[in-house]
Design a protein that fits this description.
Blueprint lengths: L1 H5 L5 H23 L1 H5 L6 H17 L9 H21 L6 H28 L5 H28 L4 H8 L4 H10 L3 H14 L3 H5 L2 H15 L6 H7 L5 H13 L6
C-alpha cells in the first residue's frame, strides 16, 4: 500500500533527475576513496584521504543550512559542478609523486570535491520538499547506487580496461556535467517557479504583519538564551563581546551553539 501511494503520481522526469543527482553527487566521493592508495602511495596512511573526504563535507552540512538559502538553486548547481570538477582535475593532473607537496595538492582537490558533495546533499535533500516523496526515494536510490557505480567503474577502468589512474580520474572529472543535465534539462522547473513566486510574495508582505510577531520571536530568543546558560557559563560575556557584530553574524553564532547539542549533549 505504501509503495502504491509512493509511486502513484510519480513523474518519471522527476524520478530520473533526482536519481542522477544523488548518483553524481556521491559518486566522486566513492571514486576518491577507491583511488586512495594511488593518490598517496603505500607509505602514507589512507585515513588521510578519508579525513579529507569526510570532514569538509561534515562542516558544510553543519554550517551551510543557516545561509545557503540566499543562493538560488540554479546558481548552487553551477557552483557545485565547477567546484567538484575543479577538485577532480586538480587530483588527476597532479603528478603521481608521493612527496609532501604533491600529496597536499591532491588533498586540496579532495577537499574541494568534498565541499561540493556536502553542499549538494543538503541542497538536493531540501529540493525534494517541492517534488514529493518519490523524489526523496529516487535521491536515496541514487546515493546508494553511487557506491556500486563509483567503485565498480574505477575498478573496471583501471584493471579490466587497463586505463591509467590519471585517465580514470580525468574521466570522472566530467561526471558532474550529468548534474547540469539532470537539473536544467530533465527536472521540471514548475515547482521551483512556484517557490520563487511564494518567496516574492512573502517579501512583499507589509511590515505591520511582521511587527506583530516580533514579541514572540524575542521571547523565543530569550528562552533559548536562558537554556544556553546551563551549557555555556560565559554566555553573557560572549553576548557582550559579540554585541558589535552584525546581526546575521550573531544569528549564525547562536545557531552553531544550538547545533553543538547534536554532538555534545
Amino acid at each position: 500500500m505504501f509503495r502504491a501511494r509512493l509511486f502513484h503520481d510519480t513523474n518519471l522526469r522527476v524520478f530520473v533527475a533526482f536519481w542522477l543527482l544523488g548518483l553524481i553527487n556521491n559518486v566522486l566521493y566513492v571514486v576518491i576513496l577507491s583511488a586512495a592508495l594511488d593518490l598517496v602511495g603505500p607509505n602514507v596512511p589512507k585515513a588521510v584521504v578519508l579525513l579529507a573526504d569526510v570532514i569538509p563535507s561534515f562542516l558544510v552540512k553543519l554550517c551551510a543550512p543557516y545561509f545557503i538559502h540566499v543562493v538560488s538553486y540554479p546558481l548552487r548547481v553551477i557552483l557545485f559542478v565547477l567546484i567538484s570538477t575543479w577538485g577532480m582535475l586538480l587530483i588527476a593532473l597532479t603528478p603521481s609523486y608521493t612527496d609532501a607537496d604533491t600529496i597536499t595538492t591532491k588533498m586540496v582537490g579532495v577537499i574541494l570535491a568534498s565541499l561540493s558533495s556536502g553542499a549538494g546533499e543538503l541542497s538536493f535533500l531540501g529540493l525534494t520538499h517541492y517534488y514529493g516523496s518519490s523524489s526523496l526515494a529516487a535521491w536515496g536510490s541514487g546515493t546508494g547506487g553511487a557506491g556500486l557505480v563509483g567503485a565498480g567503474a574505477y575498478a573496471v577502468a583501471t584493471t579490466t580496461i587497463g586505463l591509467s589512474v590519471k585517465t580514470s580520474l580525468l574521466a570522472s572529472a566530467f561526471l558532474p556535467v550529468v548534474m547540469l543535465i539532470s537539473f536544467f534539462v530533465i527536472l521540471p522547473r514548475e515547482p521551483l517557479k512556484r517557490k520563487e513566486a511564494s518567496l516574492k510574495s512573502d517579501l512583499e508582505t507589509p511590515p505591520s504583519t511582521q511587527e506583530c510577531n516580533e514579541p514572540d520571536i524575542e521571547n523565543d530568543i530569550s528562552v533559548s538564551d536562558h537554556e544556553d546558560e546551563g551549557l555555556l557559563s560565559n554566555s553573557k560575556v560572549t553576548q557582550s563581546n559579540s554585541a558589535h557584530l552584525p546581526s546575521w553574524v550573531n544569528n549564525f553564532i547562536q545557531n552553531l551553539r544550538r547545533s553543538r547539542r547534536l554532538i555534545l549533549p
